[in-house]
Design goal:
The chain is of the alpha/beta class. 34% of the residues lie in helices and 17% in strands. This is 1-acyl-sn-glycerol-3-phosphate acyltransferase.
Length: 215
C-alpha cells in the first residue's frame, strides 16, 4: 500500500464470508438490540466512533451496515493468517504509540471516496470504566479530511455505544445505542486546528457517554 492509497475490500472474499459471519453471530450471541439506527447516514463519508469493549466489537458492528466497513486497527493485530484476513476485509493498521502519516492518508482517502470508517477512539479495549478519555485522532482525522474536501462540514462523526449482557460470551445479549451525528459545522468559526480537535473530541466524549448511559 502506498502512502496515498486506501485499503480495498476483497470483492470475492467479502461476499463469500458474509453468510458465515451472520451464522457465527446469530449462533454465538443472543439477540442484538439496536436503537438510533436512523442516525447512520445511508451513503457518503462517515466516521463511526465506537466504544471498544471486546475483540468481538468489529464483528458486532459490521452487522449494522449493508456494505463493507473500513476499520482503523491496532498494528499488532496484523500477524499471521489473522492479519492476512482482516486486511482483505477492510482493516488497515495504525500504530497507536507512533501513528504513521500513511495511516492518516489511507483514512482520509477512504473518506474522500465516500466510505464508512470505523474508529475506536479510546485507543484500546476498556472494561474497567464506562469510557476512557478519548484520543483526539478521530477529530483530527475528520478535520484533515474536510480541509481537503470539496465542501466542509460534510463528514459526520457518529457516536456508538455498545454493551454485552452479561459479558461478551456465548448467549450474551448485545445492546447498541447510536447517537446523533456530530459535525465540524457546529464548531465555533475560525478555530485553530488544535482547539477545534479538542472541542470536537470533548463533544464526542459527551455523546458517547450519553449513548452508554441508556444501555
Amino acid at each position: 500500500m502506498t502512502a496515498l492509497s486506501a485499503p480495498v475490500v476483497d470483492p470475492w472474499l467479502y461476499p463469500l464470508l458474509l453468510p458465515l459471519h451472520r451464522i457465527l453471530m446469530q449462533g454465538y450471541f443472543g439477540t442484538l438490540h439496536v436503537s438510533g439506527q436512523e442516525h447512520l447516514p445511508p451513503q457518503g463519508p462517515v466516521v463511526w466512533a465506537v466504544k471498544h469493549y471486546s475483540r468481538w466489537d468489529p464483528l458486532v458492528i459490521a452487522q449494522l451496515s449493508p456494505k463493507p466497513l473500513y476499520f482503523m486497527t491496532n498494528a499488532n493485530q496484523f500477524v499471521g493468517f489473522q492479519g492476512w484476513l482482516i486486511q482483505r476485509l477492510g482493516a488497515f493498521p495504525v500504530d497507536l504509540n507512533r501513528p504513521q502519516l500513511s495511516s492518516l492518508r489511507s483514512a482520509v482517502t477512504l473518506l474522500h471516496q465516500g466510505q464508512p470508517l470505523v474508529i475506536f477512539p479510546e485507543g484500546g479495549i476498556v472494561r474497567d470504566r464506562p469510557l476512557r478519555s478519548l484520543k483526539p485522532g478521530a477529530a483530527r482525522l475528520v478535520l484533515q479530511a474536510e480541509a481537503t474536501a470539496p465542501q466542509p462540514g460534510t463528514i459526520p462523526i457518529v457516536p456508538i455505544g455498545l454493551k454485552y449482557d452479561p459479558a461478551p460470551q456465548v448467549g450474551a445479549q448485545i445492546w447498541i445505542q447510536i447517537g446523533k451525528p456530530l459535525s465540524t459545522a457546529d464548531l465555533p468559526p475560525n478555530l485553530e486546528v488544535k482547539m477545534a480537535a479538542h472541542q470536537l473530541t470533548q463533544q464526542l466524549q459527551a455523546a458517547l457517554l450519553d449513548c452508554l448511559m441508556v444501555l
